[in-house]
Amino acid sequence: MITLGMIPLEMSGNTSDSASKSILVRKGAWTQAEDVLLRSCIEKHGSVKWSRVPQLAGLNRCRKSCRLRWLNYLNPTLRRGTFDEDEEDLIIRLHKLLGNRWSLIAGRLPGRTANDVKNHWNSRLSKEVIARDKKNGGQVRLATPIRPQPRAITARKQKTSSVITEVEDDHTSWLDHLILDDEKYNKGKMEGQTEAEISFGGLKGFNDDQGLFLEGISRWENPLSDILN
DNA sequence: AACGGTAGCAACCGCCAAGTT
DNA sequence: CAACTTGGCGGTTGCTACCGT
Length: 229
Prior knowledge:
Strand content: under 5%
Oligomer: single chain
Mean pLDDT: 67
Largest sheet: 2 strands, antiparallel
Number of strands: 2
Distance between the termini: 44 Å
Strand order of the largest sheet: 1-2
Radius of gyration: 22 Å
Structural class: mainly alpha
Helix content: 55-70%
Order of helices and strands: EEHHHHHHHHHHH
């Protein structure tokens, strides 16, 4: 972050940002006045294109900076303050399942942003988890993050690919299954079951919809392997 | 009081995929 | 179909506040 006192005028390094190609845009910490301008712009115009926001708000900021400031700080639906135990527990479990998929993890925590979750993980939780694993004999159960993940359902996709849409519609469902599976794993550990017992039991529990889940994954993987082969 | 180390967090950067022209 | 634009993501940086010495 380059602040150069309080007059941090810089060219944006992002060449894909049309708003910053030929004009100097402000960088660094946001002032109260800028926050007021951005907030009133969003309240007035609603969900306009972010590329138009700097102009509409009268801000000398790039679109990305405006979007980030709104999503991570000004958005009234955000929940500020410390993470409670339940939230931390959920983050740890989801991270074990998903890896650094911060936006997915944050999606399970109402009012929390991906940036919040990531910062909290990097500054606190990762150390806690490492310490806990060391204490437990260094056994870490890590899951390979599941990819690819659909980002959003678009009108075009819905028109052109019923397959993708079906899988995306099940997006919440498969994540629920993963969490459920992990809960069963932890329960099994507590009850002294072996890895195999837990895995088998977890798979059974994982469930009545298992076929649908695996079909969903294969629908992603098959076209991918077609391309690669 | 001064200093150094560090935790927490806001913000930026580079990249990617989807959408538009 | 290519070029360009846009939205979104994860990784990283650097400022600030706090704490111990």
